[in-house]
Specification:
- 36% of the residues lie in helices and 18% in strands.
- The chain is α/β, with parallel strands linked by helices.
- The protein has 2 domains: 193 residues, inorganic pyrophosphatase (n-terminal core); 118 residues, Diaminopimelate Epimerase, Chain A, domain 1.
- β6 and β7 form a beta hairpin.
- α3 packs antiparallel against α4 and α4 runs antiparallel to α5.
- The protein is globular, with a radius of gyration of 19 Å.
Length: 319
C-alpha cells in the first residue's frame, strides 16, 4: 500500500493531474474529488476532471464549489496526464472515465474494504468513515490550508457516507475532523439541511410510489424497487435515490434492506444491513462490493430474478 509520502512525491512530480470517481457518484465521491481539485490548484497544478456523469443536473449538491464545471462530456483521457487520481471507486469497471492503464499512472484513494487494488498506486483505508476523511488528512499532509471551499466539500463527503454521523463508521477521529471543518466558518447547518432535510417535489412523488410498493419478507427483510415507470411518473432522477436503500432499516424488526432499481440498461442493487450481516460479501458474489453494512452491484438479471436470488442469500444468513 502506498504512503502519504509517496503520494506527495507523485503529486509534486506531476504537472497535469486528472481526477475521476465512480459512475453515478454520491456525495462522498463528488465531495472528495472537488476538495482535491481545489487543493491541487493551490499547488499550481493543471487539474482536469474526467467524468461520464453530468453533475450540472445534481440538484442536492449544486451548492458545492466547481460542481457546475462537470457536464459529462469530458471522459476520455487521451491527452497528456501525468497522474490520474481515482477517488471512492472500488473497481475498474465502475470508473467514470475511459483510460489506458498502460499509458497513464493511476492512483486510487478509497475507503471500501472490497477495493480491487486495480491502480498502479493504491491508498485504501477501510477504517476511515469516508473517502472525504482520507482526502482531508492527505490535504493536511500536503501542508495546505483547509479553506471554506475545501471544508464544504469534505463536510459533504463525510456527512453523506456517515448518514449525518449516525452510522457505525463514524469514529472519534471523524468527529474531530468535522469539528475542524466547522471551525473554518462553513455554513454547516445549511449544508446538512440540503443533504438531509430538503427534498424536491419529484423525490417526494417517487417516495410515495416506493412506499406503496415496498414489502417486508420474513419480517426481517425489506425489498424496495424503483422501475423506469416510477421514474417517469415522478420525474425523479437516479441521483435522487441514493438514500432510499437505508429507508428499509428504519422499519421495526428489519435487519436487511434490498433496493433494486433500473439503472441505464441494467439493474442496480444496493444492500444495507444491521447487526452482523455482511452485505459486502453478498455484493461481491455479483461483482460488486462496498462496506460490511452497505454495498452495491450492477446486474443484467431481471428485477424479479435478482430479488429471488438475494432473498435466498439473506435467508441463509439470517437462519
Amino acid at each position: 500500500m502506498i504512503s502519504f509520502e509517496k503520494i506527495k512525491d507523485l503529486i509534486n512530480n506531476s504537472k497535469n493531474i486528472g481526477l475521476t470517481y465512480h459512475v453515478s457518484p454520491d456525495g462522498d465521491a463528488i465531495g472528495s474529488l472537488l476538495a482535491l481539485k481545489c487543493a491541487l490548484e493551490k499547488l499550481n497544478k493543471n487539474v482536469e476532471v474526467f467524468s461520464k456523469d453530468n453533475l450540472q443536473k445534481n440538484i442536492s449538491l449544486k451548492f458545492l464549489p466547481k460542481i457546475g464545471e462537470i457536464n459529462g462530456t469530458n471522459y476520455v483521457v487521451n491527452k497528456e496526464i501525468d497522474l490520474l487520481i481515482i477517488v471512492d471507486c472500488g473497481n475498474l469497471e465502475r470508473v467514470s472515465c475511459e483510460f489506458d492503464l498502460n499509458k497513464v499512472d493511476t492512483l486510487c484513494v478509497d475507503h471500501h474494504i472490497s477495493n480491487d487494488l486495480y491502480c498502479k498506486y493504491n491508498f485504501i483505508d477501510s477504517f476511515s468513515s469516508s473517502t472525504g476523511e482520507i482526502v482531508y488528512n492527505l490535504i493536511k499532509y500536503l501542508g495546505l490550508e483547509i479553506d471554506k471551499n475545501i471544508a464544504t466539500c469534505i463536510y459533504t463527503s463525510i456527512m453523506t457516507d456517515t448518514g449525518g454521523l449516525r452510522f457505525e463508521c463514524s469514529t472519534q477521529k471523524t468527529f474531530n475532523v468535522v469539528g475542524e471543518l466547522v471551525s473554518t466558518g462553513i455554513d454547516f447547518w445549511n449544508i446538512y439541511e440540503k443533504l438531509f432535510l430538503s427534498q424536491t417535489y419529484e423525490k417526494i412523488k417517487l417516495l410515495g410510489l416506493v412506499f406503496e410498493k415496498l414489502k417486508i419478507v420474513d419480517e426481517k427483510i425489506c425489498v424496495i424497487k424503483v422501475t423506469n415507470d416510477m421514474f417517469e411518473k415522478s420525474g425523479a432522477t437516479d441521483e435522487q435515490t441514493h438514500d432510499i436503500a437505508s429507508l428499509g432499516l428504519t422499519i421495526e424488526n428489519v435487519e436487511a434492506s434490498i433496493f433494486i432499481r433500473n439503472f441505464k440498461d441494467k439493474i442496480k442493487v444496493s444492500l444495507r444491513s444491521k447487526n452482523n450481516i455482511n452485505v459486502c460479501e453478498i455484493a461481491q458474489k455479483f461483482g460488486g462490493g462496498g462496506h460490511i453494512k452497505a454495498a452495491a452491484f450492477v446486474t443484467e438479471l431481471k428485477m424479479d430474478e435478482i430479488e429471488e436470488i438475494l432473498l435466498k442469500e439473506f435467508r441463509n444468513v439470517l437462519s
